[in-house]
Amino acid sequence: MKSFRETRSKPTGTQEQGAAEDLTKKIAAAYNGKSNAEMLRQILAEAEKSKRAGTLSNEEIERFYQSFAPMLDGAQRRKLRVVVEKLKAID
Fold this sequence. Notes:
Elements lengths: L13 H17 L5 H17 L5 H11 L5 H16 L2
Helix pairs in contact: 1-3, 3-4
């Protein structure tokens, strides 16, 4: 799987929201048919790797959450929020 940095360009302004939405769609397509647990493990591993490498910002993580959360039910959204906060805490 490509890193988050490789799957997006460096847009500005309203283009950032479009980039987050595009990333969300790409991730959803890449994991189509995989179990939730498998999908979550792979997303977390890649996000953590990118965060530690300095190629994924807290703002990008939040934009991902804002784009992806509407596709989830309440319980899934709460789990994703916990994950997002843990990722944001990584230095």
